[in-house]
Amino acid sequence: MSKILVLNGPNLNLLGQREPAVYGSTTLADLEQLCRDAGARLGVEVECRQSNHEGVLIDALHEAGRAVKAGTLLGVVFNPAAYSHSSVALFDAIKGAEVPVIEVHISNVHAREAFRHHSYVSAAAAGIVVGFGVDGYRLAIEGLVRQRRG
């Protein structure tokens, strides 16, 4: 069975309680189960991680790049959250590790505050899913599997 890493950035541990009008009432645990279920339907194992720390996310991307090269990982579904708009280091990690990434955002960041309209990660991503709520993760998983399996 192939594997996908679902990587979530800062404050996503607060899903279900932080701004439910924007992010909904789904908790991170619920989201992770949604991702595992989506993967199972596609014959893909899904590993989920979340960190509020940029360096931890970078390390996970480096590790993912090695796993892709070893043939044990298809790629990463990544919600870098606020780091999307500020982290050149995450862009560099994706490019340097040569890891296929589908960037996902729960809300439509382009319909929100102006500072959210630019993502450094997008320029390194193989695809982007924005504004479909937590269902965007399912779409991103399906898209990554299609891209990688042909």
Tell me about this structure:
Catalyzes a trans-dehydration via an enolate intermediate. The record marks 18 as: Transition state stabilizer. The active site is at residues 23, 105. Pathway: Metabolic intermediate biosynthesis; chorismate biosynthesis; chorismate from D-erythrose 4-phosphate and phosphoenolpyruvate: step 3/7. With 150 residues, the protein is of the alpha/beta class. The chain has a single domain, classed as 3-Layer(aba) Sandwich (Rossmann fold), CATH 3.40.50.9100. The protein has helices at 20-23, 28-41, 54-70, 88-97, 135-149, and strands spanning 2-8, 44-50, 75-79, 101-105, 127-130. The chain has a 5-stranded parallel sheet, sandwiched between helices. β3, α4 (88-97) and β4 (101-105) form a beta-alpha-beta unit. α2 runs parallel beside α5 and α3 runs parallel beside α4 (88-97). The longest helix is centred in the middle third of the chain and has 17 residues, at 54-70. The two termini are 16 Å apart. The mean pLDDT is 92.
